[in-house]
């Protein structure tokens, strides 16, 4: 009888142990399964989020490309390269007092228009007025070098043509211009140069020929040349005085003429 009871007890104990192990194994499998499921859901969630982000970036890229689609080839190419890299184009505007840094002058108004059109994600503008300096002084003092180190993608340069007038011979002025452009090119070999004259003045004799020499120099070297003089009253007319201050720099009317000309180049619909 005693042996029988011990046998029954052994069977019950083994059954209990086996049942407990089975229950434990089931719980472990359930936990592992749930963990794997959560991991899968998490991975799937990350994938969807990534897809949305890529789709948004692609949408932004296409919208930006559409904005620059009608620009001149040299500008469009620069913008497209930056868009593909998800970077902004850096436009730098440099010149004499004709390229004033004052609010209301054409450089600041052009900057506002470009930011409104393309947005801060696509364009950055730096305006620098170098007042009361000849091109010789700019080169000798290295005033342009810190600007070149900023590595702009596009340089819109008014090369002190009016301030040099009567001070420096034209061949020397063009040599100074070459030095300035070369220093910018060293910092950014892919830079696009856009040259423009200072404003016209009334009754000038040598100055119009100097402007023609600047244009010839620029076109021979395949630089973009923007001759905004075409938009002003003729330099031989007294009407031109209505567009200039007593110091022969653009007044409100003059700044508007210059700005409107540049807008047709930089913002095309």
UniProtKB/TrEMBL annotation:
Q: Which keywords describe this protein according to UniProt?
A: Hydrolase
Q: What is this protein called?
A: SGNH/GDSL hydrolase family protein
